[in-house]
């Protein structure tokens, strides 16, 4: 474990890095900031999930990142608890270990704790000051299966298209911040 990991206060970015390392990307698709729409007619709405994990078999699990008890408690008033679509087959909170599992967390929700890594294969002392994310996921409570409906291909297509556009927008923005003579390889 890196010295920085043991002293760094967990924030959403560090929790998300632990999620990315924990999820097997060869067997699952991990969609960040997925918009979830639910309902029909006058009983419908939408919300944003921090991550949706999609298995090779086509089942979706929502992962919600929380870094404080206040933020976690506030999550219970969100519309997802009124009308979560039936294709969300599991729901998991991913939180720092020191938050535990409060009694007000729905019993059907899973909880993953983020803890300092005992052995961190990504640890490099030369990069310690720039990458203090030596954390791993420990399953504190497994989620209940909420349903057996697979993710509709149209929803996955929309998420992948949005991810594609976000990627190119971010890349164009990042390239625009590089000086032209460096970006294009011309003499200054």
TrEMBL record:
Tree of life domain: Bacteria
Protein name: Uncharacterized protein
């Amino acid at each position: 474990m890196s010295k920085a990991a043991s002293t760094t206060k967990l924030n959403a970015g560090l929790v998300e890095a632990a999620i990315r390392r924990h999820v097997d990307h060869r067997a699952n698709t991990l969609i960040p900031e997925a918009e979830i729409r639910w309902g029909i007619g006058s009983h419908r709405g939408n919300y944003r999930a921090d991550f949706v994990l999609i298995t090779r078999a086509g089942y979706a699990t929502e992962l919600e990142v929380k870094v404080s008890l206040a933020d976690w408690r506030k999550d219970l008033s969100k519309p997802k608890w009124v009308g979560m679509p039936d294709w969300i087959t599991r729901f998991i909170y991913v939180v720092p270990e020191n938050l535990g599992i409060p009694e007000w967390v729905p019993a059907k929700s899973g909880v993953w704790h983020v803890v300092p890594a005992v052995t961190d294969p990504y640890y490099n002392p030369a990069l310690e000051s720039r990458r203090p994310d030596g954390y791993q996921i420990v399953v504190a409570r497994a989620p209940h299966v909420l349903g057996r409906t697979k993710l509709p291909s149209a929803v996955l297509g929309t998420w992948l298209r949005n991810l594609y556009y976000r990627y190119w927008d971010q890349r164009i923005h990042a390239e625009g911040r590089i000086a032209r003579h460096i970006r294009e390889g011309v003499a200054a």
